[in-house]
Specification:
Length: about 210
């Protein structure tokens, strides 16, 4: 995978989408920014981007994904791959449904996935060095380049969705203590049912994300 580094971008996600659509970049490719000024967060909010944290976006062709991975499961799949790398290095990070990185009860990052033709674009924002108020920072010391290298290796292994989901299903139980926004209303996850594609059934509604 080609890795392209930038000192500063408004948004790695928006930048990569634009370059793929114009044909200037082709998959597989990863964009890494030292600083990001206009990151995309949950519910179309901005992700507060403090320098020295992790801001990356990558694209991969659909044909290079695990054969049993459905498109609606992309964000959970990619998030869990990164979570595995962090966990192997000693972190206690966990994934709150659907794809937010948490340390204890505070968010440290998130994932955004978009489909552009035959390309899958995924972006990570992760507080590895600094965190704004009401957020948390990663609980281990790891250099960005090492984290990126290990994640790419895990991505290339093409782990099955079935295997990832089996582990994610256990971790989902931690999410039951939290609420999510569904159609602009807060809903408790206490009685939500996790379905095989990573979506949930809550109050008889099937929900794929909180975006």
């Amino acid at each position: 995978m080609e890795i392209v580094y930038f000192e500063k971008l408004n948004s790695t996600h928006k930048f990569l989408l634009k370059k793929l659509k114009s044909g200037e970049f082709k998959s597989p490719v990863m964009i890494v920014a030292k600083n990001q000024e206009d990151g995309v967060g949950t519910h179309e909010n901005k992700w507060i981007s403090l320098e020295e944290n992790l801001f990356i976006s990558f694209s991969i062709l659909k044909d290079d994904l695990a054969s049993d991975l459905e498109l609606q499961s992309l964000s959970i799949y990619f998030a869990y791959l990164l979570k595995e790398v962090l966990e192997e290095k000693g972190s206690k990070v966990w994934l709150k449904w659907p794809n937010d990185f948490y340390i204890n009860d505070k968010k440290i990052g998130g994932v955004l996935s978009t489909i552009v033709g035959k390309n899958i674009v995924c972006s990570f924002g992760l507080n590895i060095k600094k965190a704004p108020s009401d957020f948390e920072v990663l609980d281990i010391n790891i250099e960005k380049n090492e984290l990126i290298k290990l994640f790419i290796l895990n991505l290339k292994s093409k782990k099955s969705w079935k295997g990832i989901f089996k582990k994610y299903k256990v971790e989902f139980e931690k999410s039951r203590e939290f609420s999510v926004r569904v159609e602009n209303e807060k809903k408790s996850l206490e009685k939500a049912s996790l379905l095989k594609d990573g979506s949930i059934k809550i109050e008889n509604k099937k929900v794929y994300s909180t975006r």
